[in-house]
């Protein structure tokens, strides 16, 4: 197209709309169910898109699993026993605050409005039509479904909002079957689902997406050194992938934006046409997840460290990358 530019051998596009058009024209990404008008927040990968996506994943798997002796792979089911999500805190805590415009009926996430408008207080005026916004309310992000032949409270299940919990509930199975010793990690690629209030920016914020996650189990005394290690390792991986260094940065989460399970989190951010946004989160989850599943399941999740002669619940350093978001950068 006329406004495309070649910079250092890489095609530069003037806008996100140009990228969407290019991806469709060349068979990378299409709107899901397009002939029926599509469905907001869902995308399909075409012939070239599938190959690109798999190449990015293979590059990740090679760096995080194949080249290391302290990380093993896993592939878990999408639907799990719903008690997993109760124990993890997702049923009670996994929601966004949203507001609706009383005039044009547009819906917004409160945190996105604050960021876009550069304000700290709760917004009261719609940026689209200047109409009034109603009071903020909770919006649950997990998709519900039913397992079995009946639709009642006993058959409710959830499409997983993250892949990590399957790793946590199988920590002991993997550790005992592989005889891995702490520190070690468990990695997987998988689909996750979040009923986003306002999916936007092409594949960046979708309702169905793929994650590349690794949970690294460590002794509590080594949390900081492994957190720092994985921050640097992950940033280096993006550089090795070919992403321009000047478009990458770290951003530490403020206390009020931390997830319910996180002690502290640092994001790897990329400068998209719509600003710096998260590519990957590196989080110190402490022993929150193993402790929750230990207590709620009644099954012992502790690990006996022969070298330390100590029995404990390991802390977890998590690397959680968005595969779709990473594809969007390359």
UniProtKB/TrEMBL annotation:
Domain Aminoacyl-transfer RNA synthetases class-II family profile residues, every copy: 18-330
Protein name: glycine--tRNA ligase
GO cellular component: cytoplasm
NCBIfam families in the cross-refs: glyS_dimeric, PRK04173.1
PROSITE patterns: AA_TRNA_LIGASE_II (PS50862)
Coiled-coil region list: none
GO molecular function: ATP binding; glycine-tRNA ligase activity
Alphabetized PANTHER family for the sequence: DNA POLYMERASE SUBUNIT GAMMA-2, MITOCHONDRIAL, GLYCYL-TRNA SYNTHETASE/DNA POLYMERASE SUBUNIT GAMMA-2
Cross-referenced SUPFAM superfamilies: Class II aaRS and biotin synthetases
Pfam families: tRNA-synt_2b
GO biological process: glycyl-tRNA aminoacylation
Protein species of origin: marine metagenome
EC number: 6.1.1.14
Alphabetized UniProt keyword annotations: Aminoacyl-tRNA synthetase, ATP-binding, Ligase, Nucleotide-binding, Protein biosynthesis
């Amino acid at each position: 197209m006329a406004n495309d530019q070649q910079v250092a051998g890489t095609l530069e596009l003037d806008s996100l709309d140009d990228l969407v058009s290019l991806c469709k024209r060349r068979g990378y990404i299409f709107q899901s169910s397009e002939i029926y008008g599509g469905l907001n927040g869902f995308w399909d990968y075409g012939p070239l898109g599938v190959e690109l996506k798999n190449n990015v994943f293979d590059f990740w798997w090679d760096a995080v699993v194949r080249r290391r002796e302290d990380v093993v792979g896993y592939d878990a089911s999408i639907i799990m026993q719903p008690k997993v999500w109760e124990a993890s805190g997702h049923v009670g805590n996994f929601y966004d605050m949203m507001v609706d415009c009383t005039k044009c009926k547009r819906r917004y996430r409160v945190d996105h409005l604050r960021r876009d408008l550069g304000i700290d207080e709760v917004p009261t005026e719609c940026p689209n039509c200047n109409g009034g916004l109603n009071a903020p309310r909770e919006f649950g992000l997990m998709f519900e479904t039913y397992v079995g032949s009946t639709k009642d409270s006993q058959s409710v299940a959830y499409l997983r909002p993250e892949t990590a919990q399957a790793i946590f509930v199988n920590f002991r199975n993997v550790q005992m079957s592989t005889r891995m010793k702490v520190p070690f990690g468990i990695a997987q690629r998988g689909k996750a689902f979040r009923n986003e209030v306002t999916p936007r920016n092409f594949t960046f914020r979708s309702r169905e997406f793929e994650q590349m996650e690794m949970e690294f189990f460590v002794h509590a005394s080594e949390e900081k050194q492994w957190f720092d290690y994985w921050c640097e390792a992950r940033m280096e991986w993006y550089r090795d992938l070919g992403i321009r260094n000047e478009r990458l940065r770290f951003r530490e989460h403020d206390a009020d934006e931390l997830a319910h399970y996180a002690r502290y989190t640092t994001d790897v951010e990329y400068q998209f046409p719509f600003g710096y946004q998260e590519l990957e989160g590196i989080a110190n989850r402490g022993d929150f997840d193993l402790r929750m599943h230990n207590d709620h399941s009644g099954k012992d999740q502790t690990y006996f460290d022969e070298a330390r002669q100590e029995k404990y619940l390991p802390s977890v350093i998590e690397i959680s990358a968005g595969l779709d978001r990473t594809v969007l950068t390359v």
